[in-house]
Design brief:
alpha/beta, 9 helices, 10 strands, about 40% helix
Length: about 250
Amino acid sequence: MNEPIIQIQKLYKKYKEADDFSVNDLSLVVERKEIYGLLGPNGAGKTTLISMLCGLIKPTSGSFTINNLSYHKNANDIKKIIGVVPQEYALYPTLTAKENLLYFGSMYGLKGKNLHNKVNEALEHLGLLKFANKQIETFSGGMKRRVNLIAGILHNPTILFLDEPTVGVDVQSKNVIIDYLKHLNENGTTIIYTSHHLTEAQDFCTKIAIIDRGKIYAEGTAKELIASTQNATNLEDVFISLTGKELRDAI
């Protein structure tokens, strides 16, 4: 077992006016250099859990540490070592790709030649260098998704949180994004990943937790989860077996 990098103990979150807990008595350990998939239906508690770990919302009760830092005492230090790539594009449409990335890099405290080099290297790695001076509003969905990813990793985060990093992109962009994430992971970045692409998760994640109604229903490698579920031949079978076939439409 590798050294734990995230340790969660009995975490709860209940929103005001809500009848139920969004995260309910959840305990979890993520090891360093893991690609850890958090998979669950709509409303399962994934976004709430990640929002707490990123310091965006406060738990109702319970505790967690990230890289041995407690969120109670070291919230600002935690924010310095994490990267967040949201599902929504966090980009300025009228600025160029490079202008966006220089802006976000400067917010992480990067500057000068170092910042310009990091931006150019990442743009080249993701096949975007020739479009560096084009406005974001002219980009396809796959191109925006790749710039969105770069914006979250310029400061070399120890842990990267990804929410649906390949949603709505073409196959080529998806492959480039996944390859780049594997490259980051091989260089030491721990990745926390949420997605509805179960085939992608099965191939990409080193470990998976299936979460529903704020609780962890099962945890293990994709192979372990498939082997432990009757008649399952893939991760989708496991997912349906644990979370049911009921529609989870939410407004």
